[in-house]
Amino acid sequence: MIDNITTQQPLNTQVGSLANPAMLRRAYGFWRSFTQPTGDVSNLHFKSETQLYVAENIKEKDTDTIENTGFANPSANQQVTTLPTKSIKKAAIKGDTKAQKIRRIHFANLILRDIENIQQNIKYSTFVIYANSLLHNMLTMRDLLPYDPYTEVIMALYEALAFENAWQNYTFEQYEGAYQLLKNLAKVDKFTNEKVEKAIIKLEHLGFNTTPF
Amino acid sequence: MPKTPTPIAYKTIFQVRYKAELKFYSLFINAAQKFTEYPDWLTDKLSILLKDLQNHCSLAIGHDSFGYEHDFPTKDIDQKYIQHAISELPQSLEITDFTRFGYRQIYLLSANMDMESLVSILQIKLFSQEQKLRNILPGSIGNLIYRVNGDDEPYKYTLTIRPIQKADILSLVGINLEKHFNPQTFEQDFNKLEKNFPETACLVDVDIFQLSQRLSSQELTTFVAISREKITKLVTGLSNYLFSMEVQDKQ
Prior knowledge:
The structure holds two protein chains of two kinds. Chain A is mainly α. Helix content of chain A is 60%, strand content 0%. The N terminus of chain A is likely disordered. The longest helix of chain B is centred in the last third of the chain and has 26 residues. Chain B is an alpha+beta fold. Chain B is globular, with a radius of gyration of 20 Å. Chain B has eight helices and nine strands. The two termini of chain B are 19 Å apart. Chain B has a nine-stranded antiparallel β-sheet with strand order 2-3-4-5-1-6-9-8-7.
């Protein structure tokens, strides 16, 4: 489904310099985004050095439990104590349960509605309100569904939009591309790493700089 | 597209209140005799309880109220028995004005998932996810309840939504084993029904009522019809909202 989306030429030059932006995100971006403070849109700039330093510290403590995450949804076969986060992420990708899908689609619908509102208001000052709502919903999804593979794509888009308030620079067509991509991806029943990576690359092709750090 | 769970009614309670009058005591036994659909009865000589154990329902007639209660209700029985009560009792008990009508139904929406997942869905869908609030609330949330008192003139309603496990259905739904099951066979009868209980479900309890000093028989008939319609619409809407797996199209 994702492959059917018509994509634009990349708008930034960074894509060309990276063999696989999705892989780069995986290496630094996704868990780095967990350290991102939530709050006003005006505070959504990254400070690379600080973020990477924090990320290193988190890497060392990579033994969070499912119980501590609050919303993880282990299947019956999984151990629920002291699983390293990598295993949880893998399990979350494997066991795409009904509950996960309901939660994912709930946030997907909120995010899609925000993008739609942005498109409708892109020429007006009210655009800011919807951009604010979009970024907040993305962060809420990250906080509540951190191990959902769909969240990884959402956070890729988040970083493209939030870094130096880039959300105001993207065009109607780019938002439309992101809308269609996220909509089709939300319908997917079984996520694989490949699908997530393809989706992030697709965002890059749409001109979203998902690795701005 | 996967379907959302079909709401299944587990209890119906219908009650009408009126001003107490002394003449009631000379009328209520005669009134009760007209309800032949209830084969069993129980009285303390000041009120009477008529019971249909086969259908797990009862009709209680008291000096200031009459009430119908049905465990594991079916639409047909509810309609038939309530219609009979509201057409017969006001006349037989010589009641002209009523003070309160109430229609309450408890539904279960089978969740088909573990309790933790169900709680998280209800939390996401029914409560604020503001960062500030999440920081204030301690730890993770193990269970929750959502309750709303509302006005929908001329009716008022109380809505309760909560996750429920199979083991708690009997007590939280308030299934009345003593009143609505045959004492000799209640264990087998209940076990048969219990087999179909969902492991986890979302309980939706809707209580619609109308209050006034003087409510008429005409208003009673309208109230019953409208309450049924409102409850059905509300519960279906909630099922679709809570368990939707549909990505919405652009408006």
